[in-house]
# Entry
Amino acid sequence: MTLPNGLTAEDARRAAARAYELDRRHVFHSWSAQAQLTPMTITAAQGCYVWDGDGNRLLDFSSQLVNTNIGHQHPKVVAAVQEQAAKLCTVGPQHVNDARSEAARLIAERTPGELNKIFFTNGGADAVEHAVRMARLHTGRYKVLARYRSYHGGTETAINLTGDPRRWPNDHGNSGVVHFFGPFLYRSQFHASTESEEAERALAHLEQTIAFEGPDTIAAIVLESIPGTAGIMVPPAGYMAGVRELCDKYGIVFIADEVMSGFGRTGKWFAIAHFDGVVPDLVTFAKGVNSGYVPLGGVAISPAIAASFDDRPYPGGLTYSGHPLATAAAVATINAMRDERIVENAADIGARVLGPGLHELAERHPSIGEVRGTGVFWALELVRDRRTREPLAPYGGTSTAMSATVAAAKAAGLLLFVNFNRLHVVPPCVIGEAEAKEGLAILDQVLSIADGHVD
# Structure
């Protein structure tokens, strides 16, 4: 057997064994207790599949870290990186390069409203860092509001904005961040019984938080347009428009974090487009902008905020801002997504295959408490008891039931994105109907393990 990268199975196994040995000797992994790791080696990838160090093919329902929106090894993106490397590998960000200019144009064409200025970063976390810095400088205020059940990145400001337990060891209470509860009807903090009640009460809570913190002290509200790692909770109708209204009322900058939800993931170019007419002041992006082929992120900036730096320097920058290889990959990715109707495919597969298929699984498996999502951006909330909604793993932790379910999926050829008590179904936006149904069939099989832990 020959893998997509041309290696024989035996050569791939030898290479994987060597890579694993060196990894465990020298590589320090993120978010992990180092001595407890047994990471999977990936030796090849193609489309919606990856091959592990033993030569097993797995359907990638994780899109790695929900970023390979265009799939693995897309030939047009690979070719664009190769061609750019032959022409101009790198250049300082103070100079113009055609790849960066074209990437900025293509992104600006797809952002909401008039967010036509693009500041490029190395990834999503530093995009959030710079968006907050811009908001603080623009308003002259310092505090930033962010919701619980969120993730914004691992750098200093971004991790303090984050609302999940990874923040705790990094949070010293001096970051200027104030957290509030966003809408999440399944686990409502507001005793709501309908989506409209949840939206109304969540907005009242947010306005009360603004009032108690002092509107004149708040620079920005940062929200994932659709929270990703925290659970793919699509905001109810009216909520995002209500946040926009509160920001306008109190002179607060509205930052939409589209790092995970952008570039086709939800079936639209940006998830904020699901909320008609809502235009943030700043949009952060990364991941799907070039499917992670070369690290890239950025901030799309409104005219008013961009104008703040017309006659005073913006105090920030990065050596690799708008790196030619990364932006060439972005140009090729965006053009391929347009030409091949990949965003439309994500919407279609979500509406026609994944959404109905996951709801059918919920009818058969008592461990599924709720199905949430849109496009190729879905979560299964696994519970021990549908009546009490007790999660199958604790907040911030895992459980034997979750570990066994995920291991069984991997053994059956399905790679999942998992967080606490949730299975996230987040395949590449290019996934076809047959591949989606293949993944659903494996989920149907392994969810019987989770069902065995239902009370």
About this structure: The first strand starts at residue 42 and ends at 46. Residues 342-364 form the longest helix (23 residues). Residues 181 and 344 are 32 Å apart (CA to CA). The chain has a mean pLDDT of 97.
